Amino acid sequence: MPHAAAAPQDASGKRIRTPQALLYVQHVWLIIDIEIKKLRKDPTELLMRAIQPMLWLLVFGQAFSRIRGVPTGGADYMSFLAPGILAQSVTFVSIFYGISIIWEKDMGLLQKFLATPIRRSAMMIGKMLSASLRAISQGIIILLLSLLLGVKLDWGVGQVIGVFVTVILGAAFFAGMSMAIAALVRTRERMMGIGQVITMPLFFASNALYPISIMPAWLKAVATVNPMSYLVDALRGLLLTTQDASLTLDWAVLVLAGALMAALATLLYPRIAN
Predict the structure, then answer these.
(1) pTM (two decimals)
(2) How many domains does the chain have?
(3) Residue 9 lies in a domain
(4) Alpha-carbon gap, residue 136 to 49, rounded angstroms
């Protein structure tokens, strides 16, 4: 159970006032630290969640790499697909993160969290960044698998760092959305059902499997407002030298979308305890 650390004191015994910004960061880190400890106790969850994207890359990628009808901008299809599968993994891990919020309510932990001096927005940001840690582990698995399969990606240090930044932004957005939904549905069964309904349309209505240029007009419109398209575009632009991407635009969209979800989840978070 989280608790506020004792206030530091000077030589005369007076309390030293902690700057609000530093206190806020400490609260965010406290939530992240709790999630890290959960992962250490049960790391098998991450491996289990990596099976599906691995199958997509191995089976779907190997099969469709023989089809020449998909314009990939000069890259082979496996290279074109790898960033899309990485984005899929990030989305799938994060979109079900709201289930943990409902689990905390059922275990009585949520009410205790709300009784602490931790600010609700710091709690939400901490949980969103915790989901990003899970997504990074998935990303490492997908990148290592791509390397073993000989997928032609740009493995520069700057590119890999950019990939991790993109994964953090994308996972934070989808985790925030998941927690906002969890605050509305309030049961794990409904959250699981809604998560399954959301994930596949997000995936297929993005540029993960095929470029937006070959989509029908109505699907292009959907893909343009789909945050997953910007996640894929950023990853593909970083990992493929043959792809042009507006990284500034992609990151700006993900940051703005994440900020909106953080605000919405903070507003709705207390509802789940009722």
Answers:
(1) 0.84
(2) 1
(3) no
(4) 12
